[in-house]
Specification:
The chain is α+β, with helices and mostly antiparallel strands. It has one domain (13-145): Pnp Oxidase, Chain A, CATH 2.30.110. Helix content is 29%, strand content 27%. The chain contains four helices and seven strands; from the N terminus they run H-E-E-E-E-H-E-E-H-H-E. The protein has helices at residues 13-24, 81-88, 110-123, 126-133; strands spanning 40-46, 53-59, 62-63, 66-70, 91-95, 101-107, 140-145. It has a seven-stranded antiparallel β-sheet with strand order 2-1-5-6-7-4-3, with helices on both faces. Strand 5 and strand 6 form a beta hairpin. It is globular.
Length: 147
Protein backbone atom coordinates (compact mmCIF):
# COMPACT_ATOMS: atom_id res chain seq x y z
CA UNK A 1 0.00 0.00 0.00
CA UNK A 2 1.52 3.31 -1.09
CA UNK A 3 2.32 6.10 1.36
CA UNK A 4 -1.02 7.71 2.18
CA UNK A 5 -1.99 11.27 2.93
CA UNK A 6 -2.37 14.60 1.22
CA UNK A 7 0.06 15.02 -1.67
CA UNK A 8 1.84 18.33 -2.04
CA UNK A 9 3.44 18.72 -5.48
CA UNK A 10 6.93 20.18 -5.72
CA UNK A 11 7.32 23.94 -5.98
CA UNK A 12 9.84 23.26 -8.77
CA UNK A 13 7.93 23.16 -12.06
CA UNK A 14 10.10 20.58 -13.82
CA UNK A 15 9.85 18.18 -10.85
CA UNK A 16 6.08 18.59 -10.61
CA UNK A 17 5.66 18.05 -14.37
CA UNK A 18 7.94 15.00 -14.47
CA UNK A 19 6.09 13.31 -11.61
CA UNK A 20 2.72 14.04 -13.25
CA UNK A 21 3.81 12.62 -16.64
CA UNK A 22 5.46 9.61 -15.03
CA UNK A 23 2.37 8.76 -13.00
CA UNK A 24 -0.11 9.35 -15.85
CA UNK A 25 1.87 7.05 -18.14
CA UNK A 26 2.57 4.50 -15.36
CA UNK A 27 6.29 5.02 -15.88
CA UNK A 28 6.34 4.76 -19.69
CA UNK A 29 7.07 8.49 -20.08
CA UNK A 30 9.23 10.95 -18.11
CA UNK A 31 11.25 7.99 -16.81
CA UNK A 32 14.70 9.46 -17.41
CA UNK A 33 16.63 12.48 -16.19
CA UNK A 34 15.69 15.23 -18.63
CA UNK A 35 17.54 14.63 -21.90
CA UNK A 36 20.19 12.23 -20.56
CA UNK A 37 18.23 9.04 -21.14
CA UNK A 38 19.40 7.84 -17.71
CA UNK A 39 16.61 6.13 -15.74
CA UNK A 40 14.93 7.57 -12.68
CA UNK A 41 12.45 6.31 -10.12
CA UNK A 42 9.92 8.35 -8.16
CA UNK A 43 10.32 8.32 -4.38
CA UNK A 44 7.46 9.28 -2.07
CA UNK A 45 8.37 10.62 1.36
CA UNK A 46 6.44 12.28 4.18
CA UNK A 47 7.25 15.90 4.93
CA UNK A 48 8.88 16.32 8.32
CA UNK A 49 7.04 19.59 9.01
CA UNK A 50 3.76 19.28 7.09
CA UNK A 51 3.22 15.52 7.15
CA UNK A 52 2.21 15.76 3.48
CA UNK A 53 3.35 13.25 0.88
CA UNK A 54 6.15 14.52 -1.37
CA UNK A 55 7.28 12.88 -4.61
CA UNK A 56 10.82 13.24 -5.91
CA UNK A 57 12.35 11.86 -9.11
CA UNK A 58 15.90 10.62 -8.45
CA UNK A 59 18.43 8.61 -10.40
CA UNK A 60 17.65 4.89 -10.36
CA UNK A 61 20.42 3.06 -8.54
CA UNK A 62 19.56 -0.54 -7.67
CA UNK A 63 21.25 -3.67 -6.42
CA UNK A 64 19.76 -7.00 -5.31
CA UNK A 65 16.21 -5.64 -5.10
CA UNK A 66 17.19 -2.57 -3.09
CA UNK A 67 17.29 1.05 -4.21
CA UNK A 68 19.54 3.96 -3.30
CA UNK A 69 18.51 7.57 -2.73
CA UNK A 70 21.43 9.99 -3.07
CA UNK A 71 21.04 13.43 -1.46
CA UNK A 72 23.41 15.22 -3.81
CA UNK A 73 21.36 18.26 -4.80
CA UNK A 74 23.98 18.85 -7.48
CA UNK A 75 26.70 19.40 -4.88
CA UNK A 76 24.86 22.26 -3.18
CA UNK A 77 25.98 23.23 0.34
CA UNK A 78 22.72 21.92 1.91
CA UNK A 79 20.93 18.60 1.80
CA UNK A 80 17.72 18.40 -0.22
CA UNK A 81 14.57 18.68 1.93
CA UNK A 82 13.70 15.01 1.45
CA UNK A 83 16.78 13.99 3.50
CA UNK A 84 15.25 15.48 6.66
CA UNK A 85 11.94 13.87 5.70
CA UNK A 86 13.54 10.39 5.54
CA UNK A 87 15.47 10.85 8.75
CA UNK A 88 12.22 11.65 10.56
CA UNK A 89 9.94 9.27 8.63
CA UNK A 90 11.88 6.36 7.06
CA UNK A 91 8.81 4.89 5.35
CA UNK A 92 8.99 5.48 1.60
CA UNK A 93 7.14 4.39 -1.52
CA UNK A 94 9.17 3.66 -4.64
CA UNK A 95 7.67 3.83 -8.11
CA UNK A 96 9.88 2.30 -10.77
CA UNK A 97 7.40 1.44 -13.49
CA UNK A 98 3.65 0.99 -13.21
CA UNK A 99 3.33 -0.33 -9.66
CA UNK A 100 4.61 1.48 -6.56
CA UNK A 101 5.89 -0.54 -3.61
CA UNK A 102 6.55 0.29 0.02
CA UNK A 103 9.97 0.34 1.57
CA UNK A 104 11.95 1.46 4.56
CA UNK A 105 14.95 3.75 4.26
CA UNK A 106 18.10 3.61 6.29
CA UNK A 107 21.04 5.95 6.01
CA UNK A 108 24.28 4.21 5.19
CA UNK A 109 27.89 4.98 6.11
CA UNK A 110 31.34 3.42 6.01
CA UNK A 111 32.10 0.44 3.79
CA UNK A 112 28.45 -0.09 2.87
CA UNK A 113 28.21 3.48 1.64
CA UNK A 114 31.48 3.13 -0.29
CA UNK A 115 30.10 0.08 -2.12
CA UNK A 116 26.81 1.81 -2.91
CA UNK A 117 28.61 5.02 -3.90
CA UNK A 118 30.48 3.08 -6.62
CA UNK A 119 27.13 1.86 -7.94
CA UNK A 120 25.73 5.39 -7.79
CA UNK A 121 28.63 6.88 -9.74
CA UNK A 122 28.39 4.05 -12.29
CA UNK A 123 24.69 4.87 -12.78
CA UNK A 124 25.25 8.64 -12.83
CA UNK A 125 28.91 9.76 -13.13
CA UNK A 126 28.25 13.42 -12.11
CA UNK A 127 27.75 12.23 -8.51
CA UNK A 128 31.56 12.10 -8.17
CA UNK A 129 31.83 15.76 -9.20
CA UNK A 130 28.98 16.76 -6.90
CA UNK A 131 30.85 15.36 -3.88
CA UNK A 132 33.94 17.37 -4.88
CA UNK A 133 31.85 20.57 -5.10
CA UNK A 134 30.59 20.47 -1.53
CA UNK A 135 32.10 20.33 1.95
CA UNK A 136 29.21 18.24 3.27
CA UNK A 137 29.23 14.48 2.93
CA UNK A 138 26.42 13.63 0.54
CA UNK A 139 23.95 11.42 2.39
CA UNK A 140 22.75 8.13 0.92
CA UNK A 141 19.85 5.91 1.93
CA UNK A 142 19.21 2.29 1.02
CA UNK A 143 15.55 1.46 0.47
CA UNK A 144 14.57 -2.11 1.26
CA UNK A 145 11.11 -3.55 0.61
CA UNK A 146 8.85 -3.44 3.63
CA UNK A 147 8.33 -6.88 5.16
Amino acid sequence: MALEGEYEPSSQGWVREQVERYEKSRGREANSLRDTGLPIAIYWTRGVTTGKVRKTPLMRVTHAGRYLMVGSQGGAPKDPAWVANLRAHPEVTVQDGPDPWDGVAREITGQEKAEWWERAVAAYPPYADYQKKTDREIPAFVIEPKA
